[in-house]
Amino acid sequence: MLYLDSPPGLSAPQRRTMLDAIDEINQQRYAEFGNPETLTRIAQYEMSFRMQMDATDAMDIRKEPETVRERYGSQAGEASFASNCLVARRLAERGVRFIQLYHWGWDSHGSSAREALNIGFAERCRQVDQPIAALLEDLKERGMMEDTLVVWGGEFGRTSMRENRGGQEMKFVGRDHNPGAFTIWMAGGGVRPGMSFGQTDELGYEIAKDPVEVRDLHATMLYLLGFDFHKLNYSFQGLEQKLTGVKPARVVAEVVA
Q: How many CA atoms, within 13 angstroms, populate the side-chain half-sphere of residue 84?
């Protein structure tokens, strides 16, 4: 994270005094004009200050026992998905409400060794498998799975058949995009454990049973987080705009515990 440290010569108490003065001015401004954006500005200043005070500690995985870092496959000072997973648990412990982790390099068309299923793709799997399992185990051991919803997914699915470009057998093995059917899993946060929902055809190409649209997934996630997606809407250009879109959506009750 950038800019966590104050400029040289500015101590934390001085920073707090400066923000208190800014807050007093903004409060006077709000009392005079009643602009809600002024309250938003106050909240942003306060959040930034809390991040300066707390984020450095939260992201210092060197404070974790060696046994925990080994479980994740994380090395202190080394950027990796494993380290990100460990930081995610530390952030969740501190009450951070939304945490998103990325891992790149899954576009496995087979055009190079890095994109080959048996080379680059296999390495990507090794990079994420252990830390994801460790994160779920860690959350469960600490009693955090009940109120923490973990969602794993990608952009879309892949075909089950080998990709073939230009009518020639490619040197490396890869697969093409498949937006018609793909898998997302959820854990904790009120999700039924040990089950799957939905089914594709024999080739994994199209949905054959119990389809779940992306908007249904969003509606279900909102429900598990305590929101009624029907109420989160506003009128715009003749449509009732919702977080799930304007098409009908449903909570997938079958996956809710």
A: 12
